[in-house]
């Protein structure tokens, strides 16, 4: 590994080494191909991250080498996927003067448009496979990091090996192009590194707590004397009107009771198991913080979680006229966030675009108001000029096309409408999008009043008025004319706004202005790093992190290290999926552990949301017993008989069932696994549900959860298309894809089927918990009961529980499933594997005899089904 010694764990630069603006990237650029492929490169450097720390230095440094190792593993994963990775053609490369290893690249964006932070592999073409880099004896890697944009297709990049790039350019002179193949994006890694090396925020010192540390709070709000403050009593009564339960109210009151009252740094934990209204609780927590005028950052690990939280808050805020939406901002990547129409009002990019037009010196709000004032003062003289020159330009700068000369009434109406539309549009943009510090309540009242007056004036003009009435409307001394009074009132308010509404901001600084003055900012935890670069930004007081248990602890530091943060609220559930870690070494070192989980392990108290409103009680029973120590109660809505749905006939298809599939065969699918028998059963159940949905005209959402991507692909390939117009939807994904989701019916296929009880990562308790808690009305689990029982894992407990509660069924009890299983064996050419399972003979005579037996004889049903499929020579699915 070249030049590795320049970087100490503290990030300092060694002697004789030229300082580099980004030590993490320089280290990555120093790796050879062998280094990237060497899983043991940092094995002796990475040590397990402890639960508690003796100093802030040991705390921050404990993440450094696990982070570096994770970057290496992620880069390796990029190389291993290089044959399918996005690729872009580099049309030209030009070195940037006075910037070491910097180039301007002109790219062909037809297939892939790089973004800042993308690391690419530069070569003469796409490598056929990653191993070729090693086998060809390649020692140096031509990597490039995109760090900025340019004109049109131009991008700026830093390269790892200038000599190698020059050789590539020379080799390709007059011939083929250089190609950039996407490997990874390092933006979040860089932001974590920055957080680990930044000047410390005092809140970070609260991350090394003794389990009884007073700064990490979780005690019930009702046990704290501050909670009996009259303001808290009033707030509690108001929260109860919003149909929040006691545990949700207590969590909100406790997390907000110290706001604006003291400067003590503290962290609160809210524990939100599945279906307990976590997002609802957080949205009301944010609402309370806004009413207390606390400047707050609300973030989450993913764009999806941020948008969900922002949407819930927005729906709440629109019902509260005291909340000014100009103080609320969502910012991030528009494409990844998938901003809908409702959220556009608070999305930063959309707001900036609106305000830029509105604040233009020539055509903006001031210009429009002055034009309206001129109209009110000089309209009659304008009409006289128009009579002399009918080709006089109107307010929009165009020459009106009229066959005849306009009357005074039509002239006034035509010109007024054009100016009034612009004035109203601009003033409403200012009222809606300017942060409250830049627009007073009096300004907002004046804006609303003048818009109403202008609308009233227009309404008056639409009435059949004679010339004298219109003329008198534009004279100062006619108080008896309603139009004249409206005009006079408008003029006063318009002049007042010109004097009192002072929005002095350069068009290029609007984005910074919005962030500087916003009182509530939504973004991902990683993106919050940008706030640290905004000049003169007001300090963030509160950081609220949703889905905090899915966030690596070092990544949460990106938000917690922002200047001024004195209070953090972490909302999550450590019993669900943690953050993904690619490196086994870093994973074993607890690099993926969240701050929420570590503080929980230390015994720090948590506000438990203890009522679940999602799952039928038969579904919630096992997760509640196994993961939450029976602390979760079922809400009144799920206890109601209306929550019980029987989508298919038979006890097997009740609210909860384990459907035992004997003889299913797990098989390799690339690096994944699939089970073709369970695929067939899933497909048959979905067909049955679809038919029932059509027959009953009933809306059903179905989710199929698979632990393996191979099974997801197999089910998607097998499953037909369903008419979405009948409100029948099917989502097939891995456990990770269902985190945070819920559906009416969940079909969980466990895939593993063997004689030695091996179930791999299916045994993971967190993944099992997520899979078992996604269903609202029905959860049907497919699996080999024997294999799962022999695993001696949580799945053994689940099978035993299903049997004890009478929810254990054999798939062959359902004729349609039995036939589907048989068809799947025939389709796979595995009939010999099927017959011993059912203890059947393969002779034609015996099959014909068994087909004539009573249907209660299970073996006969199965045998008869085999006979029919053999005679047809095909299956229903073919």
UniProtKB/TrEMBL annotation:
Transit peptide keyword on record: no
CDD domains, A to Z: SF1_C_Upf1
Keywords, alphabetical: ATP-binding, Helicase, Hydrolase, Nucleotide-binding
Recorded superkingdom: Eukaryota
Gene3D superfamilies: P-loop containing nucleotide triphosphate hydrolases
GO cellular component assignments: chromosome
Residue ranges of domain DNA2/NAM7 helicase helicase in the record: 243-584
SUPFAM superfamilies in UniProt: P-loop containing nucleoside triphosphate hydrolases (SSF52540)
Residue ranges constituting the DNA2/NAM7 helicase-like C-terminal domain according to the UniProt record: 592-784
One GO MF term: hydrolase activity
InterPro entries per UniProt: DNA2/NAM7-like, DNA2/NAM7-like_C, DNA2/NAM7_AAA_11, DUF6469, P-loop_NTPase, SF1_C_Upf1
Positions of the DUF6469 domain: 111-201
PANTHER family in the cross-refs: DNA2/NAM7 HELICASE FAMILY, P-LOOP CONTAINING NUCLEOSIDE TRIPHOSPHATE HYDROLASES SUPERFAMILY PROTEIN
Protein name: Uncharacterized protein
Source organism of this protein record: Vanilla planifolia
């Amino acid at each position: 590994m070249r030049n590795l010694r320049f970087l100490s764990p503290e990030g300092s630069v060694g002697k004789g080494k030229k300082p580099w603006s980004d030590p993490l990237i320089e280290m990555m650029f120093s790796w050879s191909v062998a280094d990237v492929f060497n899983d043991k490169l940092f094995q002796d450097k990475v040590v397990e991250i402890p639960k508690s720390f003796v100093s802030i230095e040991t705390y921050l440094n404990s993440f450094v080498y696990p982070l570096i190792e994770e970057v290496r593993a992620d880069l390796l994963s990029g190389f291993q996927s290089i044959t399918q990775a996005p690729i872009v053609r580099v049309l030209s490369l030009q070195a940037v003067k006075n910037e070491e290893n910097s180039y301007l690249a002109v790219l062909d964006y037809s297939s892939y448009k790089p973004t800042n932070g993308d690391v690419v592999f530069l070569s003469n073409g796409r490598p056929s496979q990653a191993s070729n880099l090693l086998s060809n004896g390649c020692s140096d890697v031509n990597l490039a990091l995109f760090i900025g944009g340019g004109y049109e297709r131009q991008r700026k990049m830093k390269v790892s090996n200038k000599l190698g790039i020059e050789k590539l350019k020379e080799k390709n002179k007059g011939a083929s192009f250089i190609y950039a193949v996407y490997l990874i994006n390092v933006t979040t890694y860089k932001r974590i590194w920055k957080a680990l090396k930044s000047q410390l925020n005092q809140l970070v010192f609260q991350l090394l707590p003794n389990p009884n540390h007073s700064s990490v709070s979780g005690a019930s709000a009702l046990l704290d004397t501050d909670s009996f403050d009259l303001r808290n009593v009033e707030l509690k009564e108001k929260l109860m009107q919003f149909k929040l339960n006691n545990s949700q109210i207590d969590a909100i009151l406790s997390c907000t009771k110290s706001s604006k009252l003291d400067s003590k740094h503290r962290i609160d934990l809210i524990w939100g198991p599945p279906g307990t209204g976590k997002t609802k609780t957080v949205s009301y927590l944010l609402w309370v913080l806004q009413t207390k005028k606390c400047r707050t950052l609300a973030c989450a690990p993913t764009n999806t979680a941020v948008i969900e939280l922002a949407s819930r808050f927005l729906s709440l805020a629109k019902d509260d006229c005291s909340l000014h939406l100009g103080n609320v901002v969502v910012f991030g990547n528009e494409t990844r966030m998938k901003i809908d129409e409702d959220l556009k009002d608070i999305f930063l990019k959309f707001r900036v675009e609106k305000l830029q037009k509105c604040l233009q010196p020539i055509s903006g709000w001031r210009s429009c108001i002055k034009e309206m004032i001129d109209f009110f003062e000089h309209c009659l003289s304008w009409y006289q000029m128009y009579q002399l020159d009918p080709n006089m330009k109107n307010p929009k700068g165009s020459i009106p096309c009229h066959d005849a000369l306009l009357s005074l009434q039509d002239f006034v109406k035509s010109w007024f409408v054009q100016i009034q539309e612009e004035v109203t549009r601009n003033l409403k943009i200012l009222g809606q999008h300017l942060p409250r510090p830049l627009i007073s309540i009096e300004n907002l009242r004046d804006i609303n009043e003048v818009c109403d007056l202008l609308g009233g004036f227009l309404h008056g003009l639409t009435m059949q008025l004679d010339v004298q009435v219109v003329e008198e409307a534009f004279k100062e001394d006619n108080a008896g004319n309603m139009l004249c009074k409206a005009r006079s009132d408008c003029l006063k308010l318009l002049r007042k706004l010109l004097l009192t509404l002072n929005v002095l901001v350069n068009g290029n600084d609007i984005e910074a202005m919005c962030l500087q003055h916003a009182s509530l900012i939504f973004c991902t935890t990683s993106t919050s790093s940008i706030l640290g670069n905004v000049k003169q930004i007001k300090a963030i007081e509160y950081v609220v992190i949703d889905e905090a248990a899915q966030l690596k602890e070092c990544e949460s530091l990106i938000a917690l290290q922002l200047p001024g943060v004195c209070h953090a609220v972490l909302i999550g559930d450590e019993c669900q999926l943690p953050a993904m870690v690619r490196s086994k070494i870093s994973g074993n070192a607890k690099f993926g552990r969240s701050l929420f989980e570590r503080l929980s392990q230390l015994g720090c108290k948590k506000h438990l949301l203890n009522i679940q409103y999602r799952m039928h009680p038969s579904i919630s029973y096992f997760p509640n017993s196994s993961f939450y120590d029976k602390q979760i109660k079922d809400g009144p809505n799920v206890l109601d008989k209306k929550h019980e749905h029987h989508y298919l006939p038979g006890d097997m298809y009740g609210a909860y069932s384990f459907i035992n599939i004997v003889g299913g065969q797990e098989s390799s699918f690339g690096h994944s696994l699939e089970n073709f028998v369970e695929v067939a059963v899933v497909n048959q159940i979905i067909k049955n549900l679809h038919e029932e949905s059509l027959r009953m005209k009933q809306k059903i959402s179905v989710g199929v959860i698979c632990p393996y991507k191979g099974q997801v692909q197999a089910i998607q390939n097998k499953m037909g298309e369903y008419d979405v117009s009948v409100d029948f939807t099917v989502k097939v994904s891995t456990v990770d894809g269902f985190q945070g989701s819920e559906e009416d019916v969940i079909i969980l296929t466990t895939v593993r089927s063997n004689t030695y009880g091996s179930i791999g990562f299916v045994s993971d308790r967190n993944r099992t918990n997520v899979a078992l808690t996604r269903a609202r009305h029905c959860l049907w689990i497919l699996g080999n009961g024997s294999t799962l029982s022999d695993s001696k894992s949580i799945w053994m407990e689940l099978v035993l529980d299903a049997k004890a509660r009478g929810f254990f069924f054999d798939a062959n009890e359902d004729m349609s499933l039995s036939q589907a299983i048989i068809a799947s064996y025939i389709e796979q050419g595995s009939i010999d594997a099927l017959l011993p399972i059912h203890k059947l003979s393969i002779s034609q005579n015996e099959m014909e005899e068994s087909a004539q037996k009573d249907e209660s004889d299970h073996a006969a049903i199965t045998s008869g089904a085999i006979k029919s499929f053999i005679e047809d020579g095909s299956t229903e699915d073919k």
